[in-house]
TrEMBL record:
Keyword Phosphoprotein in annotation: yes
Keyword entries, A-Z: Phosphoprotein
InterPro entries listed in its UniProt record: Chemotax_regulator_CheV, CheW-like_dom_sf, CheW-lke_dom, CheY-like_superfamily, Sig_transdc_resp-reg_receiver
Stretches assigned to the CheW-like domain: 20-158
UniProt-listed SMART domains: CheW (SM00260), REC (SM00448)
Modified residues (4-aspartylphosphate): D236
Record domain Response regulatory: where: 178-303
Coiled-coil spans in chain: none
Protein name per the record: Two-component system, chemotaxis family, response regulator CheV
PROSITE patterns recorded: CHEW (PS50851), RESPONSE_REGULATORY (PS50110)
A Gene Ontology biological process term: phosphorelay signal transduction system
One Pfam assignment: CheW
């Protein structure tokens, strides 16, 4: 199963930039299907032996030796408080890489990989604001709940890296510098917001590319030049309804938006290269989540605008 899945994951990389989303579908002990972006998946294995960590408790179960590397293993069902989850039935390990870290999630069953048009991937219902979902979609009439694994990792592992003192000593000259942040993960939104606000700018947060594009076009219709209203746009790549690649492409196609400065910022590792970023017209790319790398990219833009000063 692992080799077959990896082969199909490799094939799905061709979807990049075409507003498509490939999901690995799995279950957590019941009939409900869950999904995770295949670009975050390294491999799927039968449940390995685990080495307990001192004082660790569920959902962090311990360490597994995978290809000569020890990785933390989490009980995903317990982490999202899924009522039908059972550790005794969690027979598979989904090894993932995102936010510059590798970790495994125990699940009860792995079903298949499906290819979904991003416009059919929607934000979760408003009532699930405190949930662990980042989006929902349907496949063959089945509801698929896409888990915010960044939130899971942040809650279980914790300890998000902090901005260095050197970067904190940078400030923005002027009180009206705005940055538009586009990301479907609330955890990622807050991390980016923290960096940008520490540098002295204010933020507007939107959860997907389509809402961001509509917002920017609305500004233009009201006679507000978006590239003067915002110093830059920081956008995730993988989002419901419209991904970051498509958002960037649409910005470049619209004469009233085309001069916006766009940074793509993603938790995905090792797939989206500079050539692809340049192809869609983005100005910069930063991998999540290194606060200093993000701050350096933001400060580079502010410096272009003559906004930075050392305090």
């Amino acid at each position: 199963m692992s080799t077959d899945l990896l082969d199909r994951i490799e094939q799905r990389t061709r979807l990049a930039g075409h507003n498509r989303l490939a999901l690995l579908l799995f279950r957590l002990g019941g009939r409900q299907l869950f999904g995770v972006n295949v670009f975050k998946v390294q491999e799927v294995l039968k449940r390995p032996a685990l080495q307990p960590l001192p004082q660790s408790r569920p959902p962090l179960l311990g360490l597994a030796d995978i290809r000569k590397r020890s990785i933390p293993v989490l009980d995903l069902g317990a982490a999202i408080r899924h009522p039908e989850s059972s550790l005794d039935r969690s027979d598979y390990l989904v090894v993932t890489e995102f936010n510059r870290s590798v970790q495994g999630f125990l699940v009860s069953a792995v079903e298949r990989i499906v290819n979904i048009a991003v416009e059919n991937v929607k934000p979760p219902p408003d009532s699930s604001g405190g949930s662990y979902l980042t989006a929902v979609t349907r496949y063959n009439e089945d509801l698929i709940q896409i888990i915010d694994v960044e939130k899971v990792l942040a809650e279980v592992i914790g300890g998000a890296p902090q901005l260095s003192e050197e970067m904190r000593l940078q400030a923005v000259a002027g009180a009206s510098v705005r940055v538009l942040i586009v990301d479907d993960s609330r955890v990622a939104q807050h991390q980016i917001q923290g960096v940008v606000e520490t540098l002295g700018a204010s933020c507007v947060l939107l959860p997907d590319g389509r809402r961001a594009l509509n917002h920017l076009k609305d500004l233009a219709k009201r006679g507000i030049k978006p590239s003067e209203h915002y110093a830059m746009v920081i956008s995730d790549i993988e989002m419901p309804d419209m991904d970051g690649y498509t958002l960037t492409t649409e910005i470049r196609r619209d004469p009233e938006l085309a001069d916006l400065w766009v940074m793509l910022h993603t938790s995905l590792s090792g797939i989206f290269n500079t050539a692809m970023v340049e192809h869609v017209g983005a100005n910069a790319f930063v991998a999540k989540f290194s606060p200093d790398d993000l701050a350096e990219g933001v400060l580079d833009r502010f410096e272009m605008l003559g906004l930075t000063e050392e305090v």
